[in-house]
Write a structure and sequence with these properties.
Length: about 280
């Protein structure tokens, strides 16, 4: 508009400006709608169709309700940054954002090796992105403890549940042009999330067995950004992901809505293995 005003000079009028704004608004609206359709269409290509096993993740922020009550303005800004961080990880690993509800993400990806990479990346990037926003501080009595160097008070604590899915129905909503997923594996994954502490990754023993059975788990070099918290080198390391995670046996746990206790394992990046979590009620 400035350029039009500059070149037309005396011919420019308030009427012309109002018409210009009206036309420009329509153009921007159509462009935004077109970009959204393009992104939705591209994203749907990445969505597992349920015809073969894949991986689901649920992620949410510890103490989200309390953090909103503590300082809504700061938390609102932190959520925006958190959404951007998680979505960048989803895009990096060619995964699919099923839905987001407040601070809770549901993510689908091609297999559990990729799912574990996403979960590890969320934990490590949550530590690197500090302060998440100026003025943010975590709650006074968080669930996790242990080595203080494995935590940042100025960062969010994100809990993640990961599930190898073998009995899921994929449903495509033609109106909203999105996939959603239903079935026992989905129920198990969503039931694990409330049991997890902020800063922790939980998965079932069966899912971990599926992870170990995949050649890429040990045979594919672990990405440099998942090997350590502080990135000092981008060199290739031939060691697999199994060398860069810490695994703890939680045991059988009664999960809400599940007919039988589920044997859970707790995962952290090895660079954050000093974290300790409150024990859940073991069945």
């Amino acid at each position: 508009m400035y350029a039009c005003h500059h070149f037309l000079e005396d011919k420019w009028s308030a009427l012309m400006e109002s018409r210009f704004r009206w036309v420009w608004g329509i153009v921007m609206e159509k462009m935004s709608a077109g970009m959204e359709r393009m992104l939705t269409g591209t994203s749907s290509v990445r969505a597992p169709d349920g015809s073969e096993p894949f991986c689901l993740l649920f992620a949410s922020i510890e103490g989200g309700t309390e953090l909103w009550a503590k300082n809504a303005a700061v938390m609102g800004a932190a959520i925006t940054k958190y959404h951007a961080m998680v979505r960048s990880i989803i895009a990096l690993y060619d995964a699919y954002e099923v839905k987001v509800m407040g601070d809770s993400f549901m993510i689908a990806c091609v297999n559990i090796v990729v799912g574990m990479k996403i979960a590890l990346a969320i934990q490590l990037e949550s530590m690197r992105a500090v302060p998440i926003v100026p003025g943010f501080t975590m709650l006074e009595n968080p669930q996790g403890g242990g080595d203080p160097s494995c935590w940042r008070r100025e960062g969010l604590r994100v809990r993640v549940a990961v599930q190898h899915c073998v009995d899921v129905v994929a449903s495509y909503d033609a109106i909203h042009q999105r996939y959603d997923y239903y079935g026992p594996s989905v129920n198990c994954c969503s039931s694990m999330l409330p049991v997890a502490c902020g800063g922790e990754i939980l998965l079932s023993k069966e899912s971990f067995s599926a992870l170990e059975a995949m050649p890429a788990y040990k045979g594919e070099p672990c990405p440099w950004d998942l090997r350590q918290l502080e990135v000092h080198s981008f060199h290739t390391d031939p060691r697999g992901m199994d060398e860069f995670i810490s695994v703890s046996d939680v045991g059988p746990v009664e999960l809400q809505g599940m007919p039988e206790p589920v044997h859970l394992l707790s995962i952290t990046p090895k660079s954050l293995s000093g974290r300790r979590f409150r024990n859940v009620k073991v069945a």
